[in-house]
Amino acid sequence: MKALNVALNDSVSTARSRLASDDKARAGFTERFASVLTQSGFPRMPARVFAALLATDSGKLSSAELAKLLHISPAAISGAVRYLVQVNLASREAEPGSRREHYRVHSEVWYEAIGRKDQVLERCERSLREGIEVVGRDSPAGARIAETLAFFEFLQKELPALMEKWRALKATTRSSRIKR
Hints:
Layout: H1 2-39, H2 44-54, E1 60-62, H3 63-70, H4 74-86, E2 91-94, E3 101-104, H5 109-115, H6 117-135, H7 140-179
Helix pairs in contact: 1-2, 2-4, 6-7
């Protein structure tokens, strides 16, 4: 019986150690990916919150869970989530029967965020057309703005086909995983 207890305690100890190691590795990934996002122009706190949500199996965490995980204040979380919701990278979900909210990152987060850029691109295009009129089409500034407008128009035209290619690739990848 004593040997069984020792073996059981060793198993529990090994499992705890593995979980702690997994948590440490996950936290390391979260900070490294957040750093990459920050270096790419993403605000620091939203990058950390996004990376933490992305790295959870459920894809959702409460404010308290994020605060504990990232060692940040609820105010920092609130501001970060506000930003992430604005740019369509996360959503708020009310917990049934509670005033507590969970913040979620969806599986197709990049697809959804890019797919919603049509409206942003259209607003940018309108503003750029106005800018060309204001600074003059033949001025150096007008030429730069016109090139930016041409690029946005190109994106607007090509984005639907690119998104369709992604859906097809994803469907093919899923079906090949199922067949294995």
